[in-house]
Amino acid sequence: RARVWLTEYGYQTNPPDHILGVSQSLQARYIGEAAYQAWHSPRIDMLIQYLYRDEPNVARFQSGLVTIGNVRKPSYAAFQLPVAEIARRGSLATLWGQVRAPSNSSLVHVQRLLGTRWVGVAVKSVSRDGYWTLTARLAPFTVVRVVSGRLIGAELRLH
């Protein structure tokens, strides 16, 4: 049975690519969803982000986690702590996530945005392999994020 390596995975962002780019928040969402799909697919052994930094020439690849000026895009945080909404049934949402360095923290704090402040939804234990899931009452369009140790994940607007 063939094993699969997904190399040079990435989505170009607008800005700076105004023709082929997706929004920076959508790039971050796609990174979490790709991490889940790779984890969920038993034949996939590896998922490699392409690029770390956007290329100087806007006609080339703009799929980096940081801009050419080294400013972090939301995808930087999404790459560190991938999270994806993997199911929804009414107000119940199921989230999946990964902590790429689980030795730093064996817990994740799932938070939702309430007005201008972040409030806790749940604290989840991370598996030895660095994965977690949560099913919670989270209305559609709720904005969530994950905190693990000193890392703060990207904001994710639920479906």
Q: Please indicate the percent range of residues in DSSP E strands (runs of 2 or more).
A: 35-45%
Rg result: 16 Å
The biggest beta sheet reads:
5 strands, antiparallel
Fraction of helical residues: 10-25%
Account of the protein in words:
This protein is an alpha+beta fold and 159 residues long. A hairpin with a 2-residue loop joins strand 8 (143-148) and strand 9. The N and C termini lie far apart (35 Å). The strands form three sheets. Strands 5, 6, 8, 9 and 10 form a five-stranded antiparallel beta sheet that branches. It has a three-stranded antiparallel beta sheet with strand order 3-4-7. The longest helix has 17 residues, at 24-40. The model has no long low-confidence stretch (mean pLDDT 95). The radius of gyration is 16 Å and the shape is globular. Helices cover 15% and strands 38% of the residues. It has helices at 24-40, 74-80, and strands at residues 4-9, 44-49, 83-89, 92-98, 107-114, 117-125, 131-137, 143-148, 151-152, 156-157. Helix 1 (24-40) runs parallel beside helix 2 (74-80).
